[in-house]
Amino acid sequence: MAVLELxxxxxxxxxxxxxxxxxFTIGQGELVGLIGLNGAGKSTTIKHIIGTLIPQQxxxxxxxxxxxxxxxxxxxxxxxxxxxxxxxxxxTLKEHLELTGMAYGLDEKTMKERASRxxxxxxxxxxxxxxxxxFSKGMRQKVMIMCAFLVNPHLYIIDEPFVGLDPLGIQSLxxxxxxxxxxxxxxxxxxxxxxxxxxxxxxxxxxxxxxVRAQGTMNDLRRAFNMPNATLDDLYIAMTxxxxxx
Length: 246
Ligand SMILES: Nc1ncnc2c1ncn2[C@@H]1O[C@H](COP(=O)(O)OP(=O)(O)OP(=O)(O)O)[C@@H](O)[C@H]1O
Description:
Keywords: ATP-binding, Nucleotide-binding, Transport. This is ABC-2 type transport system ATP-binding protein. The chain is built from nine helices and nine strands. The protein has helices at residues 42-50, 71-76, 93-103, 108-121, 137-151, 167-182, 194-200, 218-225, 232-245; strands at residues 4-11, 19-26, 31-36, 57-62, 78-81, 155-159, 186-190, 203-208, 211-216. Strand 6, helix 6 and strand 7 (186-190) form a beta-alpha-beta unit. Adenosine-5'-triphosphate (ATP) binds next to helix 1.
């Protein structure tokens, strides 16, 4: 069974849809990249998956259930890392981790063990008592990432994770994603960093003007565009040119 399933999903902010008739699935242990131009609908797709927008048509299932069928189960099945970090100004890093652990029902021992590994991985051990106002942009991003991985869900939804992270932070995030994948978790990640997506994603979904233009492995995409040796950059530019020719 697919971990995440979008079936004929159409939706947006007003009656005029921004995403149209989206169909894709993510299986257990898969890392799937959501790629497209600015305004293609990546964040809007993610907002529908996490339940801040409700599809106008179609359904979204996580582990076979829709948000409407079981809201608590649906919400506790995934972690979401937003493009722009959202932190509580009055809570320290330690308190952010504790609050997340409590909200997801982790026992204290598990929470402390996981937090300690993450703090070391992201080199944030010395900042446990800092407040968000003292963090750099990358550090704020790391707090969100650590909270997401602390929960250890079936599915990670990550919106443009690499902007603002230094190269060591990017490597730590990729290592964490690889480790979770090996343990059977699934990841949907939107990004404009195409070389990283090409190297790390099992499959790619190319969004164009709110629709899926092509999806699959790099070889599937090369076939879809009839470009046998293309990189993801080449395919992306080809998709842009299709837009220009319309
Ligand atoms: N809050 C909103 N209200 C109305 N329209 C919106 C809102 N947010 C985004 N849109 C519109 O939805 C469309 C898709 O935007 P979206 O943010 O999903 O694109 P994206 O692929 O994530 O782009 P980017 O790469 O720039 O982050 C755009 O036309 C945008 O103007």
